[in-house]
Amino acid sequence: MIKKMSKLQENFNKTLIAELQKELGIKNALAVPRISKVVINSGIGRLIKDKNLVESAIEGLSLITGQKPITTKARVAISSFKIREGMPVGLKTTLRGKRMYDFIDKLVKVVLPRMRDFRGLPEKSIDQNGCLTIGFTEISAFPEIAKQQQQRADYNFGFEITFVTKTEKKEDALALYQKLGLIFKEQEKQ
């Protein structure tokens, strides 16, 4: 069975690898930075009291990622936060392959342009290992959620998206993200 590639994945394999190889001065095409996975997670600690809110968070993440998230549980008890060991505290989805590239394509072409006052991502969102983390205060920027929000008011929760790369340099990762279409703010000169 032959799996069909997404357009972004096909474009990355055919043209962007060669462009990055030339731009970064890398001789081997296999050494070009790549995204290995995209992890989407959300804390549901405040939603845990209402089972319907937890179910709507699971449904919301399922809609935007195309797969059901797993529930993460607390490893230790923290009495000041009223958390017991083994209590569900978060949701996590890991995307790889075609789903990952489809998600990145949707994020770049649909979601980020729909965000109000979006001027680009800060470069400080990229850590020293090249991983990029983007935080969202609400899920409503995704087109799949727009229909659901009209019917239900409990579809508002925050989450974060982390892009994990196969590179060790922040500069190489920044070049990769820019080639994929992510827009970054210009650094302010001091």
Fill in the keyword field for this structure.
190 residues; 50s Ribosomal Protein L5, Chain: A; 5 strands; 37% helix; globular
Describe this entry's structure for a reader.
With 190 residues, the chain is α+β, with helices and mostly antiparallel strands. It has one domain (7-180): 50s Ribosomal Protein L5, Chain: A (2-Layer Sandwich). It has five helices and five strands. It has helices at residues 7-24, 51-65, 97-114, 143-151, 170-180; strands at residues 35-43, 70-73, 88-95, 132-136, 159-165. The protein has a five-stranded antiparallel beta sheet with strand order 2-3-1-5-4. Helix 1 packs across helix 5. The longest helix has 18 residues, at 7-24. The chain is globular and about 55 Å long. The relative contact order is 0.20. The mean pLDDT is 82.
User: Tell me about the biggest sheet?
Assistant: 5 strands, antiparallel
Distance N to C terminus: 55 Å
Biggest sheet strand line-up: 2-3-1-5-4
- CATH structural fold name: 50s Ribosomal Protein L5, Chain: A
% residues in beta strands: 15-25%
Radius of gyration using CA atoms only: 18 Å
Helix-strand pattern, N to C? Answer: HEHEEHEHEH
Number of strands: 5
Name the shape in a single word.
Answer: globular
Mean pLDDT: 82
Offer a quick outline of the entry.
The chain is of the alpha+beta class.
Give the topology, please.
Blueprint (H helix, E strand, L loop, with lengths): L6 H18 L10 E9 L7 H15 L4 E4 L14 E8 L1 H18 L17 E5 L6 H9 L7 E7 L4 H11 L10
Antiparallel strand pairs: 1-3, 1-5, 2-3, 4-5
